[in-house]
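Model the whole thing, not chain by chain.
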Amino acid sequence: MTKLHSHQHDHDAGHAHDHNHNHCIDTALATAETLCIEQGQRLTKVRRRALELIWESHRPLGAYQLLAKLAEEGFNSAPPTVYRALDFLLAAGLIHKVESMNAYLGCAHADRAHKGYFLICDECHNVMEFDYQDIHAALIAKAAKQGFELRAETIELTGLCADCKAKATDAAAVGTSA
Ligand SMILES: [Zn+2]
Ligand SMILES: [Zn+2]
Ligand SMILES: [Zn+2]
């Protein structure tokens, strides 16, 4: 079992291995503040705390997990409040929904418009954004060829992340050398 709060195991978006996750959180919050000012929106306390909680790790957080955490902290955690906060964060591009996990992931590239494609690790359940926007153009072109207007696309790839792969390799090496 992986420990939920082990930051050593988390991944920077696009970069595996140990990293200072506080840096991810600080950057995400700073970006959120800037974007909200630019868009004339308010990063209310509940929106900000929801974003922070989603950013606690690189594992997507479900709405009910978020609701429970906010309730613990004394926020108005009525489902409509929490869903409104999530809708705001989604619309602002600060988080993505990972459909197959029915959970939310903080976006590390919120300052540029993009589609979220995801690499989901079967082992540690960390999710990284798969930065491959060419796929988006290719999909639109292919769909258009068939007379289809694309409105939503969900690309979620599952497998083993670099950290888990390295651990599996290490374990195998220890196993053979012992
Ligand atoms: Zn991180
Ligand atoms: Zn993103
Ligand atoms: Zn992993």
